[in-house]
Amino acid sequence: MATAKLMDFDKALELFEPVLGFEVHVELNTNTKMFSDAPNPANEAYHAAAPNTLIAPVDLGLPGSLPVVNETAIRSSISLGLALGCSIAPSSRFARKNYFYPDLGKNYQISQYDEPIAFEGEVEVELEDGTIVQIPIERAHMEEDAGKLTHMGGSTGRIQGAEYSLVDYNRAGVPLVEIVTKVIFGTEHRAPEVAKAYVATIRDIVRSLGISEARLERGNLRCDANISLRPRGQEKLGTRTETKNVNSMRSVERAVRYEIQRQAQILADGGTITQETRHWHEDTGTTSPGRPKSDADDYRYFPEPDLVPVEPAAELIEELRAQLPEQPVARRRRLMGEWGFTDLEFQDVRNGGLLEVVEATISAGATPATARKWWTGEISRLANTQEKDATELISPENVVALQKLVDAGTLTDKLARQVLEGVIAGEGTPQEVVDGRGLAVVSDDGALIAAIDEALAAQPDVLAKIKDGKVQAAGAVIGAVMKAMKGQADAARVRELVLERAAQ
Asked: Where is the signal peptide, in residue numbers (predicted)?
């Protein structure tokens, strides 16, 4: 595939106005699927299930099977709609969305079309510098997921060039809420940042509601980014593309930037944009063509004949409204004040995706300062080295236990970092790593005095300087002692003893 020509980003923004729209799919973590009693693989209890074991006749579209709607999924959908600032429809209905994919056993998907459960909302999104952007929400509707295809034998993992495909119907019928924005104008050069911040905000809302794990890398949260460019001074919108397969916050940002640069160059060269899906490639940071993008009319929607309309009681809606958590922006502002962080300190936590884990660490007994220090410092460094998410490496409880060992004088900061590496390597709790590696600080003054006397005897010139009152010379002896003790000594206590022994 030929490499696409890209226009400089700033130049692209001089010539064109970026116009955005997002479709975010949220997998609900209900115990069972949307329309069957099969276990839901988006629920933590079933993550390890073997392919094609979490299935029921409804999921496969077998003749004679009838869907029954999941009440918990409806409640979760209403809660999410309310959190998005939407109105909840007094009556909504399901529809059949007809299309033909190998991973769609019924050859249609049960979704909502013209009567979604939630509509007309707005989400407050905060950018990294604190700027607030309002994102208009058109609708949030319920639907079921399709199965999952795994393409084998090709070099890219896509159907092009593959020798055969495997179908796993475990995911078929997983409850989804699709959140669709209205057309978003005015983001200009911050369009990629707005995209990233919006998806992060949806993730935060969903997690706070407890209705999904919302992990992009697992597919619990999936973002399709619609991007078009409008020439400056023109009223008519440009042709959009829909970028799929975006599985991280950073990728959302990169994909929007790439499409702006790609489309700008095509238009500047006199070409036209094809309305199509495009696939994001994380390894190359590029998009490639997928299939021509259909409009809604092409799916031949019609009302689902086997399901009655959803008509939630007004009392239920108000009950769920009363249970809504804080909005993400308000929560962040409250936590920053409670923790006493500066704007920059809080940004480090937030931008690193560490807000929840820092909060959990503080709740487990750490001070805000020590929680921030560990997570934004050594843990993040190790995560970057291992190319992993920092939150996967160690639990908040173990971070607290590690800090308690430091506070008790059992570990120096240097030793604590070694213990941290041991915990991450699977050697046990901080105390177990200390015991297993023998890393506790030597608190026996006798052992320290012996090492100090040996170091003083080896450096008589330094001893003479200390006796003359040049106490800064003690650093050389302290260094020698710490080396002899393999770092397992309290440097402050070593200094005290060095000065005492030198004075004798």
From this structure: none
